[in-house]
Amino acid sequence: MTDLFALGLRNRRAVPFTSVPLESMDGFGASLAEAHARGHRLVSLFGLPDGADRLRLVAVVADDAEGALGVTSTVVARRYPALTPRCPQAARFEREIREQCAAMPEGHPSLKPVRRHPPDHAPSDWTWAPVDREAYDFDAVEGDEVHEVAVGPVHAGIIEPGHFRFQAHGERVLGLEIMLGYQHRGIERLLETVDRTRAALVAESIAGDTVVGHADAYCGALEALARCRKTPRAQAIRGVALELERLANHVGDLGALAGDVAYQPGASYFGRLRGEFLNLLLAMTGNRFGRGLLRPGGVRFDLTPDLVEALRDRLPRLSQMLEPVARLMFSDASVQGRLEGVGVVDPALAEREGFVGPVARACEIPRDVRHDHPWGVFRFAHVPVATAWAGDAFARALVRRIEIQRSLEFLEEQLGSVPKGAPMVTAGALRPDELVVSLVEGWRGEIAHVVITDGQGGIRRHKVTDPSFRNWPAVAAAMPGNEISDFPLCNKSFNLSYAGHDL
Amino acid sequence: MLDFLRARLAHGTPTTPFPGPGAALPERFRGRPVFDAARCPAGCRDCASQASPDLIRPRPDGSARLDLGACLFAPEDADACPHGAVQFTRDIAMAVTARDDLLTETGAVRLARPLDATMRRVFGRSLRLRSVAAGSCNGCEAELVALGNVVFDMARFGIQFVASPRHADGIVLTGAVSRNMREALFRTYEATPDPKLVIAVGACAISGGPFRGSPEVLNGMPSEIAVDLWVPGCPPHPLTVLDGLLRLLGRLERGER
Lengths: 503, 257
Known about the structure:
By secondary structure, chain A is of the alpha+beta class. Helix content of chain A is about 40%, strand content about 15%. Chain B has a 5-stranded parallel β-sheet. In chain B, strands 2-3-5 form a 3-stranded antiparallel β-sheet, with no helix packed on it.
């Protein structure tokens, strides 16, 4: 058996692609099964053409306790024995590989499409039948008085497109299947083909509410490949922006949850305070979502003394407004009654499936990239991991509430001592034939960009895994047993990204 | 109850005074770009935005035009001309009636004109819209949601987003129109009763935005659907959308920027 961790791979440390183990299919499967048995997480699993008729599969696993990343690979023909039976976290990745690369993982329990598009990373000799973008074989429940409810892709609110198919008995949900892909824009191919100036904008547009998170993962990957050393100042500014993004979204989510349980004061106040954090990003970057700030080499906008002063003045006041509203909402019996016991995620399932972010932390799994695989400013400033135990909508709200406090404390500390230095340095050319894994704890959880360069230092493969890709199965798993009318609330308590999943 | 009242008092009235003096936007805000053709050296062909594809469109006679509909409002866009001809202003007003109105030689644009009298009589005091997100990043949608909060409070103008196209007076498209959303877009459009308005919000809906050229998107609004209001931005500031809607309904002075 190969030691996947022998290379010493870490978050944002590039290694020669030739040094990545190349195992037999059997050995590759055994390595992933062993990693799963030892409690290591599958961070990414994807394919890239290896000649005209072969596919290289690359797997990245994480040992969160050690802050270590492992990597291995194999080469497969068009049909290969599926990894999922031995490594359950591979299930969704193998569906993705089938769709992107036209390979057939034989023995996979469910090969439904993930995004419904023709293969765009297949070896050139492989051919396939035209893809029917509307076809999807939904599971159905048979029985008297069992009925089916179909929702989407166009929803009642201002929400991204997705299709939800419920099997229900009366109001009780028996099963939920989620069909996505409506937001598929071909992000990975764009990142692999457009020039680098534009690619940064594409990375910022993977998920429009996670501009800073994805831009940080993208820049981190390119900087590692270019051996570019950012200044501590640039790292601090990125950290400030990332936590402002987390604050805006977590505060907004608390407001949206309040709205869904008809607690109007929460909806109004949190909704308004979310905008205050966006406006701080606007003052820093010229855009409410932080677009334009992060670029390979650092940040395009410096944190001037005036801005630091403004932030240090504004943040404590926002904190003072947030806290009473949070206290009111979380102590309100009717709010508690509506959130508790709704959309429960089983901690064992969360562990087995490798859920990430607040969804995992609400199941008492202390998983947080800032803590487990720290990068940039988070190597020096530690943000305590926030957890709750019930795994329900209330626990997910509670994790957000605690993280709001922790982010505010982090910002106070950072803004008190922004290191000196240049905000931007030249990133330079990428080293040829290397692989890097760049992880970020976005507000929804672990964002993973895996980049492999070609012989000329161009991008050979850019694999993006948004936390929503990991967590959508949690929404489907949490619904059975709940009432159909609780779905909006349940869905909101996860608040996953359609765009981030669909790419 | 006392705690509740205390929280209520602490928040005051946060609604933006718009229309009116408007909210002061920070110095770095990237609003409507302007184009100073006087800075263009004769015969210069150096203009090419590496960030926003097709931002500057050269013409055969040597002059060039800026396409606000292709602008991604990235800081790099100001570098698109090495002679400094492109600059961002802090102006939020830039929504227009016709696609061609977004093409400008100076950055000045003819802002959206009011609907005709009949349409204004129908929609002027009460406009209900259905949002269709189709191949977006969710940035524009986030700003449409923000229009409903207590700060922008679009409902005070009688404008609301509704749950069904059957209840709507028009649709708001966001996103580059992914192939997977094409049919749903057309079906939503057809389900909206006539007379109806169509509003394209954001660079994606206008020109494909950062996804322009991807085989998985249609580069914005399909030509079969006539558009009444084009709102540039990536994403547009909520006030840019609100300004455009109010101009369309004839609720603001006519303007040129």
